[in-house]
Amino acid sequence: MKGLTDIPGVLVGHASDYDGLTGCTVVLCEAGAVAGGDIRGSATGTEEWDVLNPLHVTDRIHAVVFAGRSAFGLEAASGVRRFLEHKGIGFLFGGVHVPIVPCAILFDLGMGKTNIRPTREMGESAAAAANDGAVVEGAVGAGTGATVGKILGMKQAMKSGIGSFTVELPGGVKVSALAAVNAAGDVRDPSTGKIIAGARRTPDSLEFADGAQAIKTRELPAARQNTTLVVVATNAALTKVEATKLAQFGSVGMARTIYPVNMLSDGDLVIALSLGTAKAGLDSLGVAAAEAVSESILRAVRMAPSLGGLPGLKK
Fold it and tell me: Which of 39, 68, 134, 297 could form a disulfide with 22 if both were Cys (CB 3.0 to 4.6 A apart)?
């Protein structure tokens, strides 16, 4: 399994700055993809989000960009549009190709050098690097500065990053997810209920504090350096309404794995893409999407090394 690139027509590329500890991740669907979205967090930063609405006239998109550095990271999408335009990809109008590129950001300003941010050039570089090989996971792209377990503050958090996972259904149908995990909450393995990465009791400890329990029993300052961003893709044919529902199913996987999730300071969202002509029931696709998202989140923390003074699970 390669992750999100198991879906034909999907390319993934990263650009990472390990001096600044930030970056961006680009998902290209150059032939166009039917898309829908679901927002569950209250602190989102997005661009071109309305094109995902089933009532919007746009019937397909050409890329998705995830970037770090809060609103500053939205600039990366301009580079992806420029890259696609030069390739002649997008809606043709008067001799000009107009690529449709939704973008979402996560807040990683608490890591590395805050004056280093995803730029237009970084977005263009990530797009140029996009390929159909196995998705590179861990502290790369939008996950370069990602962390989890910030309910007790950054000093007691852990490193996270990018994860990707594919679920296969009968008849050659596939549902895959890619997650950039930068959650305030802890990450739990749904199969055991145990925390595998999250808030630690002290900055020098690897013993988990249980962020959900902590926030229930005492008043804590808002942990604002958050947001988990997910792309779900399938080779099944969907309408925009169905793609929107698939994104909602994907959000279930986030809720299974991150505790607590969708907090006031999270900008959690899912974008779903349909590329292909395979046939499958939406409920089946939804069950697979929730599983793929959950496993992607687990991989995002398991594949992240120690970085920026915070411990990671990858040795």
Answer: 68
Residue 177: φ, ψ to 5°? -140, 150
List the chain pLDDT tens, one digit each, 315 residues: 899 999 999 999 999 999 999 999 999 999 999 999 999 999 999 999 999 999 999 999 999 999 999 999 999 999 999 999 999 999 999 999 999 999 999 999 999 999 999 999 999 999 999 999 999 999 999 999 999 999 999 999 999 999 999 999 999 999 999 999 999 999 999 999 999 999 999 999 999 999 999 888 876 776 668 999 999 999 999 999 999 999 999 999 999 999 999 998 899 999 999 999 999 999 999 999 999 999 999 999 999 999 999 999 998
What's the rounded Cα separation, in Å, for the pair 145 and 225? 11
- What's the chain's length in residues? 315
Phi, psi of 289 (to 5 degrees): -65, -45
Among candidate residues 67, 2, 8, the one with its CA nearest the CA of residue 274:
8
Cis ω before 221 (30° cut-off from 0): no
Whole-model pTM: value is 0.97
